[in-house]
Amino acid sequence: MSPIQSRATRVLLSTVSSDSHTWNLVFLQLLLEERGYEVTNLGPCVPDAELIEQVRVQRPDAVVISSVNGHGHIDGRRLIRKLREDGDEAVAAVPVMIGGKLGIQGTAQPQLADELVAEGFDAVFTDGADPAEFSVALQRMTAGRAGITGAAA
User: Which domains does the chain have, with CATH numbers?
Assistant: First the structure.
């Protein structure tokens, strides 16, 4: 095998630490794999430190966080701050999107998306977001990150 090879775009999929839901992750994993992404699904209730360690080890092209318990905005803020402050530049710079039921007031919290982007998320999808935009945003976030890698990848 050549030291330079094409590869699928790698996505690390997770919930936030307080979210024990799994069907959203199963659905997203299948959706992403159907679109050609290589997905590592960390499952529910992933502690911030574990997610950051997996970013460090796996070097994904993007991280997708799905939360449906209504507390995603709280845990998401904490997680993205820790991730963006990480001493490893590649870890701190990885594109990250969050989506789902991020607050307990549903669409009555339209400012959540802007606040989460200001905290460091590259894309945010709240209740009522157009599902087609998810794929577009992920393609935009990962453009140029996958495809050519060294032998260690």
Answer: 10-142 (3.40.50.280)
Average pLDDT of the residues in 56-82? 93
- Angle at the Cα of 18 from the Cα atoms of 141 and 64, rounded to 5 degrees: 10
Cβ neighbours of residue 129 under 8 Å, at least 6 residues apart?
99
Write down the pLDDT at residue 80: 97
Each residue of 18-49: b (16+ CB within 10 Å) or e?
ebebeebbeebbeebeeeebebebbebebebe
Q: pTM of the prediction?
A: 0.87
Average pLDDT over residues 4-24: 87
Q: What is the 3-state secondary structure (H, E, C) of 70-103?
A: CCHHHHHHHHHHHHHCCCCHHHHHCCEEEEECCC
| Residues 117 and 126: beta-carbon distance below 8 Å | no
